Amino acid sequence: MEIIIAPDYEEMSKISARIIALEIRRKHDLVLGLATGDTPVGTYQQLVKIHQEEGLDFSKIKSFNLDEYVGLAPLHKNSYNFFMRENLFEQVNINMANVFVPQGNTDDPEEYCKWYEEQINNYGGIDLQVLGIGRDGHIAFNEPGSSFASRTRVKALFKQTIEDNSRFFNSIEEVPRFAITMGIGTILEARKVLLIANGKNKADVVASFIEGPVTSQITATALQLHTHVTVVLDEDAASNLVRKDYYNWVRDNKHLVQKMVGR
Ligand code: F6R
Question: Domains of the chain by range and CATH?
Answer without folding.
Answer: 2-261 (3.40.50.1360)
